[in-house]
Write a structure and sequence with these properties.
31% of the residues lie in helices and 27% in strands. The protein has 465 residues and is an alpha/beta fold.
Length: 465
């Protein structure tokens, strides 16, 4: 056998789950190594969350610069350089990846670049890369290999005419037109980005609303906003008969018995993700699956003792902050640092403009569960800070138990929604009530006042509506 090293934990995958789990193990004084196929930070940091937010900030800034008169300012010939915008996003991703590598080193977690495989319980091998052929003996294994973008069946991703978000982030060209298939967070964010810079965008969603997981009121508001921005949006619509040509892509949009042909320079597939387990398990390692995702117990352990899993690879919700939470808790549990906690309440965020953020149950879910609930809603048009900033689109909506005021869910669409949602997340973690949110003094003028006013509205006590 080739060279063998002994560890307390080997982490396979260096994304938000993997690197966080490795760092946590290092903090606990354990000998740990993190093996990552590409770059520390995984998809989120290198090809997802972080670079897309850099792009979206450029889009937001450019959109505001085109209308400076709103703020009493003047600017002529405002232009953009898409290559520089894309290059900046890569610089941001590179900077953050280096930061993660530094944190691993700081916490004495060994970082190894290569493809890892669980050869047997307690044994990990490197099958590709500089360290190919090395074996690592370990007491515990944490699988955090994440997910990869789902492909449209029968349609080849070539990076020119057909892309996923990864190819789009690597491109330095701005298409004149694009059909985006899927109006979840990824599809919506790219629709906003491309449209902001003048691309003709057709956004198609098979389900009845954009952002299908969000509250219906939020989705309806976002749809109106996108249509006002000039995005051609189709819901309850399927994409069929994809024809990829030399200079364009043609698709059929099918809604009921109506079929419409659409042609665009690029087709962007944003139809979700699939688990990434390719090459991660030797043939003799039989881990139990649930819909192709690794099945784990309450301590994140698989059906094989000593092999754990966390992050996207164990199924939805596929969010970086969920992955980090799961991995840290898995490590805490495996080394006896308290009981591992499973995800209960969590924020979901979409970074288009207006931003969308939520936590807990939607109103539809409350109805389906037969809960006795009340709703408080406060529009940003009544927020002094929002109006002063010319960002008054949207609202805060809170859903609470009619009798106790326990918060069932919160839904925000508007400026800085992704920052504001944290207050409701903390409130739900602490089992606070809408009355307690209302009785907490919020600084004036701030956008956070809308969070307070929505809570007050649920009790019929809002002052500014």
């Amino acid at each position: 056998m080739a060279e063998t090293n002994e560890y307390d934990l080997i982490v396979i995958g260096g994304g938000p789950a993997g690197y966080a789990g490795a760092i946590r193990a290092g903090q606990l004084g354990k000998k740990v190594a993190c093996i990552e196929l590409e770059r520390a930070g995984g998809t989120c940091l290198n090809w997802g969350c972080i670079p897309t937010k850099a792009l979206l900030k450029s889009a937001e800034f450019y959109t505001k610069m085109k209308k400076p008169e709103i703020y009493g300012l003047g600017a002529k010939d405002v232009t953009f350089d898409i290559a520089k915008i894309m290059a900046r996003s890569r610089v941001v991703a590179e900077q953050m990846a280096k930061g993660v590598e530094f944190l691993l080193k700081k916490n004495k977690a060994e970082y190894i670049v290569g493809r890892a495989q669980v050869s047997a319980p307690g044994l990990v091998s490197v099958t590709e890369g500089e360290h190919k052929g090395k074996f690592f003996k370990t007491k515990n294994i944490l699988l955090s290999t994440g997910c990869k973008m789902r492909r449209i069946p029968g349609v080849e991703v070539d990076g020119q005419r057909v892309m996923t978000s990864r190819e789009a982030l690597a491109s330095k060209m701005l298409p004149k037109s694009v059909v985006i298939v899927g109006a979840g967070a990824i599809g919506v964010e790219f629709a906003y980005f491309y449209n902001a810079f003048g691309t003709k965008v057709t956004l198609v969603e098979m389900l009845p609303q954009v952002l299908p997981q969000e509250d219906e009121d939020v989705s309806k508001t976002l749809r109106r906003s996108f249509e006002k921005q000039g995005i051609d949006l189709h819901v309850s619509t399927k994409v069929e008969n994809v024809r990829v040509g030399k200079d364009s892509v043609k698709v059929d949009l099918v809604a009921g018995d109506k079929k419409t042909e659409v042609e665009a320079e690029v087709l962007l597939s944003a139809i979700g993700v699939v688990p990434n387990l390719e090459g991660a398990l030797a043939a003799n390692v039989k881990l139990e699956l649930d819909r192709n995702y690794l099945k784990v117990d309450d301590s994140y352990q698989t059906n094989v003792k000593g092999i754990y899993a966390a992050g996207d690879i164990i199924g939805p919700p596929w969010l970086a902050h969920i992955a980090t939470f799961e991995a840290v808790n898995a490590v805490n549990g495996m080394f006896g640092h308290g009981a591992a906690r499973r995800v209960k309440n969590f924020p979901g965020c979409t970074y288009c403009q207006p931003q969308v953020a939520s936590t807990g149950l939607t109103e539809k879910a409350c109805k389906e569960k037969g809960l006795d609930y009340k709703v408080g809603k406060f529009p940003f048009t009544a927020s002094g800070r929002a109006v002063a900033s010319a960002d008054s689109e949207g609202f805060v909506k809170v859903i609470a138990d009619t009798k106790t005021g326990e918060i069932y869910g919160a839904h925000i669409i508007g400026s800085e929604a992704t920052e504001l949602i944290a207050e409701y997340g903390l409130a739900m973690e602490l089992e606070a009530t809408v009355e307690e949110i209302h009785q907490t003094i919020h600084a004036h003028p701030t956008l956070s006042e809308a969070v307070m006013e929505a809570a007050a509205a649920s009790m019929g006590e809002a002052i500014h509506i």
